[in-house]
Specification:
The complex is a heterodimer of chains A (110) and B (116). Helix content of chain A is 0%, strand content 55%. Chain A is mainly β. In chain A, a hairpin with a 6-residue loop joins β9 and β10. Chain B is mainly β and 116 residues long. In chain B, the strands form two sheets. In chain B, strands 2, 4, 5, 6, 9, 10 and 11 form a seven-stranded mixed β-sheet that branches. In chain B, strands 1-3-8-7 form a four-stranded antiparallel β-sheet, with no helix packed on it. In chain B, β5 and β6 form a beta hairpin. Classes of the chains: A mainly beta (110), B mainly beta (116).
Chain lengths: 110, 116
């Protein structure tokens, strides 16, 4: 079993929809939780960063961490075609290396 | 703003050849990480360096080696290349001391290595 599980999708939604992306993990020692957006042939781009539990909001993006359930989420409000990308969750306990989810491929249709 | 610079962007090598990938981290970042991302796969951690010393080692084959130099740039050396080494190789950098202020990781654009 992988330490981080993420449904690879693909996920297709109409423009303006609310998108929910999720990851579960097994290592309770993880403290740092991140969401990355990766466009085709590009390096992952950090979207959201959360330390320990809680919610964090940045524009149309909201990240949630529930350490008791070992579950993290990324919500995208008012989704746009430019949001079409692969979204990777990542987490770390010691900052020496990260564990990535498989990535969810999202398509937002105009 | 300065980003993580990787070179070359693309590299084509034959089996059993050697390849060297370079990574220039963001200024003031003291930690460099290397990842390998195969087609349709999530990035796999290879190795990391903090202040020019190896800090952690992941699934890096024995045929690969890496080092971080005094100017903090890093090089990934890959020998006896195999077809399965074809992948996107990412470098990321961070500042260990600034993690909780959220600098997180910043990735370079990657080097696409094709072994034929």
């Amino acid at each position: 079993q992988k330490e981080v599980e993420q449904d690879p999708g693909p996920l297709s939604v109409p423009e303006g929809a609310i998108v929910s992306l999720n990851c579960t993990y097994s290592n309770s020692a993880f403290q740092y939780f991140m969401w990355y957006r990766q466009y085709s042939r590009k390096g992952p781009e950090l979207l959201m960063y959360t330390y320990s539990s809680g919610n964090k909001e940045d524009g149309r993006f909201t990240a949630q961490v529930d350490k008791s359930s070992k579950y993290i989420s990324l919500f995208i409000r008012d989704s746009q075609p430019s949001d079409s990308a692969t979204y990777l969750c990542a987490m770390s306990y010691n900052n020496n290396d990260m564990r990535f989810g498989a990535g969810t491929r999202l398509t937002v249709k105009p | 703003a300065a980003g993580v610079i990787q070179s070359p962007r693309h590299l084509i090598k034959e089996k059993r050849e050697t390849a060297t990938l370079k990574c220039y981290p963001i200024p003031r970042h003291d930690t460099v990480y290397w990842y390998q991302q195969g087609p349709g796969q999530d990035p796999q951690f290879l190795i990391s360096f903090y202040e020019k010393m190896q800090s952690d080692k992941g699934s890096i084959p024995d045929r690969f080696s890496a080092q971080q130099f005094s100017d903090y740039h890093s090089e990934l050396n890959m020998s006896s290349l195999e077809l399965g080494d074809s992948a996107l190789y990412f470098c990321a950098s961070s500042s260990l001391h600034l993690l909780t202020d959220h600098y997180g990781y910043t990735f370079g654009s990657g080097t696409r290595l094709t072994v034929v």
